[in-house]
């Protein structure tokens, strides 16, 4: 591509195309990616950079994976899409069999949708419909602060109330119950006081609460925090005691990211409803799933409406299901547990000592997620340029510098990622 053609493309992009959370008048710098292979993104000037983000948790096997490419090609030559109303197909059946098989015991009924946010909307609808004819006062949700569940309105209503969304959409967003985020970190000694706020709020308001929704163990986009599994175990217990359904949003944590196949396994619980997305297709296509128990599914189905009130046009898209099947097969036949444990160990050694640095307030690692919390806010535009110059793709936000690389990353590549993180702490990446 000539320089001029590229300049024209980039100019159109700046003037006409929104990127996630961006302005049309002050667009952030944007990089033109031409292709991707393994853990490398290739920019259109030929530069190769190591992807530390797995395209936001999704590309667990890296890019251009032969088995996944083949699954898509084979499926495309048979049927890329067909409506799911009144029609079914093997890719969807196989996928739902696999999901029921690998998720915590008891999750048996699957609703397929197109994105994580939609799978959260579906989970919330399930909870409302579950209570509708049993106890119609149960119409609200309870959740923990610092949470993130997506960008659609139902999901937004249970995102952290102080991150800007709520203020902007006040009057339109459903008011929900918020409790303090779990105060005990993943590897700290457990303290019962950490569950008090949940216990009190449920005791007082349970007649109005349909479900407790939270991200198990890892709070992702709301702060990259890892909390104690005992919180989740006791939350499950309290939900049962107060007749509140438990929704586990495993969209970021699912498929091995935290060192367990699903983060709920850290607490050995089965939620009533589980949301999956992101890594489900190995980052190839957009797809999500909401799983629930036979009991919840039957209660909804025996209600006055008789049906679950949702049905997206691209529900169960065969191409997405086919590549999800291939991705799950690849994961389950790989030694992902060792890979993730190896990444965890290497990141512990490379990142945890950085707490000594003046610009760092905390460093933490869980599974293949490494997080540095900085003392000052990071200027994204500045930082992005520095990272690309140093050969990596890392996208910080606020005071969080974090990586969650594809599981196939080599030791040397991970060393580069961690080395660059160390290096930029002394670079000019800070908000003035
Ligand atoms: C990314 C994410 C979502 C939203 O998924 P989309 O596919 O972006 O709609 C919801 N919950 C969690 C925990 C996520 O990380």
From TrEMBL:
The keyword Transport does not apply. PROSITE patterns: AA_TRANSFER_CLASS_3. Its main location: cytoplasm. Pathway: Cofactor biosynthesis; biotin biosynthesis; 7,8-diaminononanoate from 8-amino-7-oxononanoate (SAM route): step 1/1. Keywords: Aminotransferase, Biotin biosynthesis, Cytoplasm, Pyridoxal phosphate, S-adenosyl-L-methionine, Transferase. It catalyses: (8S)-8-amino-7-oxononanoate + S-adenosyl-L-methionine = S-adenosyl-4-methylsulfanyl-2-oxobutanoate + (7R,8S)-7,8-diammoniononanoate. Pyridoxal 5'-phosphate binds at residues 116-117, 249, 312-313. Substrate binds at residues 56, 148, 278, 311, 395. It holds the Pfam family Aminotran_3. It comes from the Bacteria. The record marks 21 as: Participates in the substrate recognition with KAPA and in a stacking interaction with the adenine ring of SAM. One of its GO terms (cellular component) is cytoplasm. Coiled coil: none annotated. One of its GO terms (molecular function) is adenosylmethionine-8-amino-7-oxononanoate transaminase activity. HAMAP family: BioA. Belongs to the class-III pyridoxal-phosphate-dependent aminotransferase family. BioA subfamily. This is Adenosylmethionine-8-amino-7-oxononanoate aminotransferase. It comes from Moritella marina ATCC 15381.
